[in-house]
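Please, structure for the following, as tokens.
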Amino acid sequence: MENSTDAARSGSWSRSSANRRGPWRRRLAVLALLLGAVLAYQAWRTVSYAESLMPPPSADIAIVLGARSAGPEPLPVFRERIEYATRLYSEGKVRKILFTGAPGDPPQALVARDYALARGVPEDAMLLETRSRITIENLRYAKELLPNPDESVLIVSDPLHLRRAMRMAQDVGLNAIPAAVPQTRVRGFWSRTKMTLRESAAYVKYWILRRL
């Protein structure tokens, strides 16, 4: 008799536990679906923005957003940003180039300066920002170095990065225009998908944090 009572209690507890878990599982499933929908929408917006970008007009200064380097050498993504900025300068599209980025030894901004110097950009045509570690800091600290806070700037980066970067540039008060690197290293389906998802998640994170 005792055994049957214990079994009944055990069965009752299991059913109760399952009933309690049920609503939480449903909520988690709904939350996962909502999150997936938000990311899918943001991915579509990011790709659409990247595909809509046109060659930039002239501006006062090009701000090159930092990216990874290996010692004194810029890695491919960063190198293409630097090369595009030097091209804008040589074509007379900008009067100066402002390189950003602190990480690395030497810092990214110094790596970019040396690379641009070797390609004919005079040192007095460059400004260096060596404190920033993330995109919002690139832009915030770059603004502090502008000779005139109202100067027009080209934000030089990869097409898929520029939607988030431009949102941040507007938030810090820059008179900014996107300047997408035309020959980005982010090619191929998987590379583009990975960067699109990363940028979409980063955009959502930034949108949430700026409202807290």
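The chain has one domain: 52-209. Residues 52-209 form a domain with the Rossmann fold fold (CATH 3.40.50.620).
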